[in-house]
What we know:
The protein is of the alpha/beta class and 335 residues long. It is built from eleven helices and eight strands. The protein has one domain: TIM Barrel (Alpha-Beta Barrel), CATH 3.20.20.70. It starts with a helix and ends in a 27-residue tail after the last helix.
Amino acid sequence: MHPTLPLLARTEFPPIRRRSLETLQVNLGYRCNQSCLHCHVDASPNRPESMDAATAALVLEVLRARRPSTLDLTGGAPELNPNFRALVRGARELGLKVVDRCNLTILSEPGHEDLAEFLAASGVEVTASLPCYSRDNVDRQRGDGVFERSIAGLRRLNALGYGRGDPARVLNLVYNPQGPSLPPAQHALEDDYRRELAANFGVRFDRLFTLANMPIRRFGSTLVSKGTFHDYLALLRGAHRDENLETVMCRTLVSVDWQGDLYDCDFNQMLGLPAALRGTARPHLRELLAGDGAGGAIRVADHCWGCTAGQGSSCGGALGAQAGADASHPATASS
């Protein structure tokens, strides 16, 4: 795999600073039951990294101390971590919103047959990756048979009350382009998804989030191999919008890796760029017991243009600028 950090480190991205902590995003490990081409985590069934019980317990201690509004669980497939359910229960007991970044196929994996029921009973918000409403496009990006299993997972969640406007059963879908282009306008694409999934599969959902692909790890390496890395960076930088700087996710989010180390976002985690928190070279969860680092500088590099390009991109989808209009470089759901 081609390293991308040396190509990203020098940047003119504007300086930004942290605000009060609202979301603790915890990566429970890089093991996944899929190996998607666009995955910025480079997750796969062969990855051994997994958060241990002691670090998971520290996550709950930090939640009690800092009381963010949201615990955002990601991976890999976060549900493969043996501490996943304990974290969900602990955070819900504290009254926090819990988001599960679910790949949908995990719902039909052996040993996880009751996972959908657990999520529903716990009131977990499910944010599920579905990069297209077309079988061929999804299977090309995520593997043969993934689309069919994803639709089955969505139907199962719908049967449990997800995707029907119930605030205790929220179901979001996530779209990302298949190649080096910006996502289309989020609102318009959401209408397309809603129409096609309902008509062809009887599937309902609450929101669609559009995310730009980051030029790091597996996707970035592919761009380097194809000789299109710098062209994609030029696309992202050229579509930058200053107004998106106010709402980028890193201002109110701290990313935690499977070892408990802290980063400004999940992308910086994958690049090995630790947060500059309390002057510590490699800050750990323990630092958050003393404070959330509000006011501190956020580490930036050239990949950050991906979050501010066009309508903007974050773990919660478009940031607002042009979210309902045509993006600067539109793509289609079937591209």
